[in-house]
Amino acid sequence: MFDNLNDLYQQVILDHSKAPRNFGELPGADHFAEGRNPLCGDQVSVAVKMQGDVIEDIRFKGSGCAIAKASASVMTTALKGKTLNEARTLFEKFHELVLTGQAAPCAQLGKLSVFGGVHRYPARVKCAILAWHAALAAMAGDQKKVSTE
Ligand code: FES
Predict the structure, then answer these.
(1) Closest atom of ligand 1 relative to the 39 alpha carbon
(2) Which atom of ligand 1 is nearest to the CA of 67?
(3) Residues 7-41: pLDDT tens digits?
(4) Domain total for the chain?
(5) What contacts 43, CB < 8 A, 6 or more positions away?
(6) What CATH number should be reported for the domain holding residue 109?
(7) Cβ neighbours of residue 107 under 8 Å, at least 6 residues apart?
(8) Disulfide check for 76: which of 22, 50, 123, 149 has CB 3.0–4.6 Å away?
(9) Domain range spanning residue 60?
(10) Ligand 1: centre distance to CA 125 (Å)
(11) How many percent of the chain have pLDDT more than 70?
(12) Ligand 1 centre from 51 Cα, in Å?
């Protein structure tokens, strides 16, 4: 599926899907939400520990394909230390990237830019944004199950 992505991007995605960062329970978490991809039924739950408006720690667990797992993993590394507003802005740019393959300025996305090839596989866009939906719902205090629909 990734024939058109360069080797580095492919390597980062495979690495994060095989050995996801920040995977598992988060002791002391105070915000939770669960996301579901209606296309496949996969679910990802996200737990966040907030310090005021700042994301002190974040972890995820659940099932999902390699893209969903890698996206959740890279997302957690990108969001630690960010404010809720910064997280929302980052998601807008990330969403634009996975939908169109472009996001300006791309430099702000850092490692998230490895998902720039996802737009070539429209069915995988929901996989890439699954954990983001759960994370933003959790931080907003919305504990109901959210869907990528
Ligand atoms: Fe289910 Fe990607 S196929 S999350």
Answers:
(1) 1
(2) 2
(3) 767 889 999 999 999 999 999 999 999 999 999 99
(4) 1
(5) 34, 35, 36, 37, 62, 63, 64, 145
(6) 3.90.1010.10
(7) none
(8) 22
(9) 5-147
(10) 9
(11) 89
(12) 31
49-75 per-position pLDDT tens digit: 999 999 999 999 998 999 999 999 999
The whole model's pTM is what?
Answer: 0.91
Asked whether 57 and 80 are in contact (CB, 8 A), the reply is yes
| End-to-end C-alpha distance for the chain, whole angstroms | 23
The residue behind tokens 């404010």 is 83
CA 68 to ligand 1 centroid distance, Å: 6
Cα(73) to centroid(ligand 1), Å: 14
DSSP assignments along 7-30, one per residue = HHHHHHHHHHHHS-TTBS--TT--
Using a 6 Å CB cutoff, which residues line ligand 1? 37, 40, 42, 64-65, 67-68, 127, 130
pLDDT tens per residue across span 72-127: 999 999 999 999 999 999 999 999 999 999 876 656 788 999 999 899 899 999 99
User: For residue 64, which atom of ligand 1 is closest to its CA?
Assistant: 4
Q: Whose CA is nearest to atom 3 of ligand 1?
A: 65
